[in-house]
Prior knowledge:
The structure is a homodimer. Chain A is of the alpha/beta class. Chain A folds into 3 domains: 2-189, MoaB/Mog-like domain (Molybdenum Cofactor Biosythetic Enzyme, Chain A); 194-270, 2-Layer Sandwich (Alpha-Beta Plaits), CATH 3.30.70.2860; 275-427, Maf protein (Alpha-Beta Complex). In chain A, 38% of the residues lie in helices and 25% in strands. The first copy, chain A, has 14 helices and 18 strands. The first copy, chain A, has helices at residues 18-21, 28-40, 54-67, 85-92, 101-113, 171-189, 207-213, 245-263, 275-285, 300-306, 324-331, 335-341, 346-360, 409-427; strands at residues 2-4, 11-16, 46-50, 70-74, 97-99, 128-130, 134-136, 145-151, 161-167, 194-202, 224-230, 233-242, 267-270, 290-294, 317-321, 364-370, 385-392, 395-402. The longest helix of chain A is centred in the middle third of the chain and has 19 residues, at 171-189. Chain A starts with a strand and ends with a helix. Chains A and B meet through helix 1, helix 2, strand 3, helix 3 and helix 6 of A and helix 1, helix 2, strand 3, helix 3 and helix 6 of B. Strand 15 (317-321) of chain A pairs antiparallel with strand 15 of chain B, so a sheet runs across the interface.
Amino acid sequence: MLGVINKRMKAEIISVGTELLLGQITNTNAQFLAEELQSLGIESYFQSTVGDNPERIHEVLSIALERSDIIIFTGGLGPTPDDLTHEAIISFFKEKSLLDKKVLKQIENKFYLKGYKSMPPMNKKQAYKPKNAKWIQNKLGTANGIIWRVRTPFTFSISHLATIITFPGVPFEMKHMWKHTIITYLKKICKGSILYSKTLKFTGIGESALAEKIKKYFDQKNPTVAPYASLGEVKIRVTAKAKTNKQAKQLVSKTVKNVLKYTSQYFYGFDEETLESLVANELKEKKKTIAFAESCTGGYLSKRLTDIPGSSDFIKLNIVTYSNKAKHQLLNIPNEILKKHGAVSSQTAALMAKGIKKLSDCDIGFSVTGIAGPSGGSKEKPVGLVYFGLAKGNKIKTQKVLFGTNSSRSTIRFLATQFALNWIRKEL
Amino acid sequence: MLGVINKRMKAEIISVGTELLLGQITNTNAQFLAEELQSLGIESYFQSTVGDNPERIHEVLSIALERSDIIIFTGGLGPTPDDLTHEAIISFFKEKSLLDKKVLKQIENKFYLKGYKSMPPMNKKQAYKPKNAKWIQNKLGTANGIIWRVRTPFTFSISHLATIITFPGVPFEMKHMWKHTIITYLKKICKGSILYSKTLKFTGIGESALAEKIKKYFDQKNPTVAPYASLGEVKIRVTAKAKTNKQAKQLVSKTVKNVLKYTSQYFYGFDEETLESLVANELKEKKKTIAFAESCTGGYLSKRLTDIPGSSDFIKLNIVTYSNKAKHQLLNIPNEILKKHGAVSSQTAALMAKGIKKLSDCDIGFSVTGIAGPSGGSKEKPVGLVYFGLAKGNKIKTQKVLFGTNSSRSTIRFLATQFALNWIRKEL
């Protein structure tokens, strides 16, 4: 990730929507915008969330203008009466609101194209904007955003020129508008020194155990080294500031090497690399094919690997064999094995891997069978117990993992796919 | 959802973590906490996000204390040097920090139980807390939170007693602590009138088209009616305030009936109900079984339905037949059909559904075959084109849907599973 910094340029994200305050949706927009600002080297120290309420929008806007130069709103541009972000911004700055007839026509056309006889009257308000603002066209929906260079009110400690940018709350519309218009605008107004960062990703180790190995780097000022944990993985972010791109990259590269000296055993990838993208790349490069026989993960492993475009090159067939009958019929697992050792056993995992390899005629057969819960566990085979099998050439390996008996069904299923993808990655 | 309101009781969520400002993780914690506060009837008008920086944590804490009574922090309780939420709170209130030896011992024990020889020295700081605060035990990790009734500094416009609550940022730890300790505490201190809300969920219609049908209800003050949209669905939330639970429920129920008069065609469920949970319930109740043959969704449909606990009662076998060979071999689709009409065709979808029904010996065979992109599209069969097949008894039906040629692979895959689950729900 690379960006250009202007030290005076600070941005702040304001998410608008009562549904956010009620916890009915996750704020993925703030994450997207934050990541994009970071990659442009624009500093952002605060984010706020506020409901669809003009007075409270005024309050957060007022606080944001005191500490930031670029205020990015997301949400509240819809056609319904509770969508009032533009109205609130206009009244805050005591600006005139103008109906843009050209934009009204465009919105009407969008409805005709969708097969409507006329535009729902509610949508008319989406054609109003502050007099001096520019539109940000929304090609995927009817809610256009605005970009507005405006002087803060004189009641402010220091009156300054601020940039107000608004986006609708619908994530794919917002992202499309960001990528196709705003990013070019922001790149133009940002200049200064270079910010460059690289993220190292680890799995199979906890945050503090990993941090302990490299704690001496946490006091470094440039590049900075910061760890953070999420379900099934730990990341270390290394960020350098320098005058040129080359210098920043060199600084990061040196620290990355040092960090990996102590941690390479658990390292799996950089930045945007995911376990599934790495597995996909390896399979493509080595021209190998793979097939899954899943039980407790129920298609999740198949789903994750087919998220990758072009996965039909290396996946021909996957099977979710929930029942013993399916395991027997399709994967040829003898009923005696299922009876004696159970569906959740190293023996069954091995034969599932062997069976799917044969059925699919792939290079690698991989199996998962376990107890994802919440019911179905016993003292001997508790919830969270999962067996994995890997068949390659004439060899079959199995592994047994207990993913914490306190974990939820969704956690166990995710961790099982994480473990599976990491094992396959190592095997390749 | 039901809760008890105290009109003076306002809560505010502060998420701490530079990784949030950099957009490296999604803030699911704020959503969880917001939803829980709402269900307790505690009002929450603002959320903030701030980095791991003491001065900026002071700044947001100061703003939050001016407008809210309960300040809930999440994040920054980890063992690494950048985790400093407790330190920042302690310095803000100029309080003493105390090492709790009992808690230190507990943390050490957690490492012994995990097979460590000793606690990493870094974790010692997790045993410090403000002198007069109480611990919130973290049974799933080492980062305990605190609950602290503390008077705001005298520099405040009105000095008042505030409640500071802290949680670690790791979602499953935070949720466990919330459910097992804080929820009881908050219920005790909340009293007043009743808040009750119900969410209606719709699919197959856009936000403004749905809103237009029921716009007359948006001006209602009690209950309020608010719409919001997300990928593949629209929700309408109806919220009433009343003196008793019964009165609030009656108010909501009346408005819900009115709303459904105009929209029932697109309605699928209430509140926590999801398409997958509804399909699962119907299958269980009617003692029916189902099997999927997926192509472009690559296991996503199977994953979604097996997310539901107990899904092994009605799912025995699912197959991802990416290749034509697999479609032919396992589902008995004649090569001539695949050649003549292609894998993405109504004919293939029908035979896939028939084939998986026969192979699995289930009541319903369901198929998905389409072009998820980004490549593989043509003028005749563009990216986003998906065929669905449903075999039940002796009948086979198919449907063709074009999910927008501008959509991403992940959007198309999600919308295809959404359409599939909704069709199956209607069919049941």
